[in-house]
Amino acid sequence: MTLQHSDTLERERVTRSTPATPASATTSRKIEVGTPAFVRTNCALFAAGFATFALLYCVQPLMPLFSESFHVNAAGASLALSLTTGLLAVSLLVAGVLSETWGRKPMMVASLFLSAVLTGLSAVLPHWHAFLVTRAVMGVALSGLPAVAMAYVGEEMDARSLGTAMGLYVGGTGLGGMTGRLLTGVITDHWGWRAAVMTMAVLAVLSAVILARCLPASRHFVRRPPHFGPLARTYAVQLRDSMLPWLFAEGFVVAGSFVTVYNYVGYRLVAPPYSLSQTQIGLIFAVYLCGIVSSAWIGSLSGWLGRHKLLPATLGLMLLGTLLTRADSLPVIILGVAVLTVGFFGSHSVASAWVGARAQVGKAQASSMYLFAYYAGSSVVGSLGGVFWSADGWSGVTWMTSSLLVVAIVIALRLRATV
To answer: Has residue 1 been placed in a domain?
Structure first.
């Protein structure tokens, strides 16, 4: 996603200081705009970001089919995504530290190859629980890419090239999140969901090959043993801050509410009176483009109006979009999904940037804590929505997400009052 696939927050991750390097490394030039190395690096990072979020979210439009094929309810079907994001959330806390020993590029390449293989395996497994196991393990494997990619950029890119490199990576995650949803729906209608998932695995393998062949080896990185003690102490400092835990909570609610609507809107639209095909539902997810475009605009707007003023407004957009999806009219439902998506990208952009600005020490660790809360919300709230769907249909889903968003707005107003 969109793991994303996400991401003024990632900009803060690259500002951390890098370990001392030997003279040979410090004298070598970093990758600059206009050089062949810059082109190769950004092709590799774009492909990696694309594949990461395509693999992560390709199962989202397939949940009604999982319910039909494996005879599980909506909450059970949501585990196909929730287990992946849940294990991803936990693994992100340590993946960056492990890369200090294993190396940046080797960890990213291995992460993507292994995730692709697991996705291909999940496409042929006949049993639901085996399918879920592969998706859960994939969450662990996939964490090695988003946790390390921005560290690589920060170490290897010239300062004037950082913005362009990160923008292409984030663009790849957004496009991957949309393509994973859209292409899966189209292929499913013609050849079934297993062929769709296998197609995502093949695309991920191709992306991993591009990453392995095009990404230059690290020249400004020195291996060192992992140190988890200082990491734990830094996390403790973040949790004692007067504002950061509230911002982490915002990430939990924002991601959880957004993923819940996307998880279960398909259940509503495949049923009468809409009876949409998987292709048609996939095309609705093209509204993701609205969020991708608006993210940069809202991010720049926050510098003018202030994050404390903009966060309640973007959360309000999410609430409005959620309530619009309660309508019976299909165009209004689609409009609601679009408004929700714009509000989500804006809220995530503002909250994540606020985390980086607020953290006085350990900015990378604060970013990791925010991402942990973000993906934990996607996992926990995303599955909880299935319980509300089973109890009261779409009305239950929207009342749950609306209630959470009201809480998020109250938190945002509290944060605004403390600025």
So the answer is: no
Cα 167 to Cα 42, 307, 375, distances in angstroms:
10, 21, 21
Confirm if 342 and 294 have CB atoms less than 8 A apart: yes
As given in the structure block, the two tokens for residue 405 are 């968003």
Is 2 contained in some domain?
no
Please tell me which residue, 321 or 236, carries the higher pLDDT value. 321
| Domain interval for residue 395 | 7-418
Beta bridge partners of 157: 31
Residue whose C-alpha is closest to residue 278's, from 209, 197, 193, 360: 193
The Cα-based distances of 236 to 230, 248, 362, 366, 369 in angstroms read 10, 13, 11, 10, 10
- Return d(Cα 47, Cα 297) in angstroms, integer: 24
How far apart (Å, rounded) are the C-alpha atoms in residues 39 and 70? 45
Rounded to 5 degrees, φ, ψ at 31 are: -75, 130
Phi, psi torsion values for 271, nearest 5 degrees = -90, 160
Per the DSSP assignment, residues forming a β-bridge with 31 are: 157
- At 273, the amino acid letter reads P
pLDDT of 16 higher than 80: no
Cα–Cα distance measured from residue 365 to residue 228, given in angstroms and rounded to the nearest whole number = 12
User: Can you give the CATH number for the domain in which 305 is found?
Assistant: 1.20.1250.20
Total domains present in the chain: 1
Please report, as a single letter, which amino acid is at residue 284: I
Q: CA 212, 213, 215 angle in degrees (round to 5)? A: 70
The whole-model pTM stands at: 0.83
The widest CA-to-CA distance across the chain, in whole angstroms, is 69
Per the CB < 8 A criterion, the answer to whether 198 and 116 are in contact is: no
Q: Output 347 or 137, whichever has higher pLDDT.
A: 137
Residue 171: predicted pLDDT: 65
